[in-house]
Amino acid sequence: MKTINKLSSYKELSSTVADIVEEQITKHPLSKLVLPTGSTPLGMYEELVNKKLDWSTVITFNLDAYLMNITHPQSYQSYMKKNLFDRTNIYPNHSHFPFRPFSAFEDKIVGSMGIDLCILGIGTNGHIAFNEPGSSFDSRTRVVHLDEQTIKDNSRFFGSVDDVPTQAITMGLGTIMDSKKIVLMANGVNKLNILNVAMNGEVTEDVPASILQRHDNVEVFYCD
Ligand code: F6R
């Protein structure tokens, strides 16, 4: 089942998804979560930190990570430490970024009984995690080259386009689709068109997020 919800503000988007995460880890303290980075979830992380939840038994997997020095301020490892991990009681060895060998990373997810809740953002080209247009619907965790559009979009976090890493490790579309529940967040008018194409258009590898139409437990929240 897919539900699409328009919210009135970024604040409401952030608090709505934070409430879903809160409910998940309060009802199921052993939850396994998949978490995104980027600008969209920043407000949600702020809300979650302010809730002062018990993260001590929660296990997290990040969707993706640039291939770069993990101590760089723009690495996704630095982002997660700054916005969530260093501000909660999550155990450092309970939070995982995609690692090599990728089969071991995938096994870790399967071995932890699978993902209960996966939170996603969406790129302006329809990517989810760093599964760029053309990614196989069966794809698993792997190294990818970032799309020109993604590099351009993400240059706002770096000094210039030339400073944006060109490669990343990402969970695959198949990996994401194995999650029991998926929540997709989108913020801003620049995401409206691709969100509409992904949720109501043809299911095609040219629009990676369109695969979500085939998942039976997806909620989409957006604001413009
Ligand atoms: C990041 C990720 C990406 C972002 C997407 C949107 O971990 O998975 O797919 O969700 O690029 O990024 P923002 O939120 O910055 O527009």
Structural notes for this entry:
The protein is α/β, with parallel strands linked by helices and 224 residues long. A 7-stranded parallel sheet has the order 1-10-9-6-2-3-5, with helices on one face. It contains 7 helices and 10 strands. It binds fructose -6-phosphate (F6R). Fructose -6-phosphate is lined by residues 36-40, 63-64, 121-123, 127-129.
Low-confidence parts: none
Report the helical percentage: 25-40%
Counting DSSP H or I runs of 4 or more residues, the number of helices is 7
Heteromolecules bound:
fructose -6-phosphate
Spell the H/E element sequence. Answer: EHEHEEHEHEEHEHEHE
Record field, number of beta strands: 10
List the keywords.
single chain; 224 residues; alpha/beta; 7-stranded parallel sheet; 3-stranded antiparallel sheet; binds fructose -6-phosphate
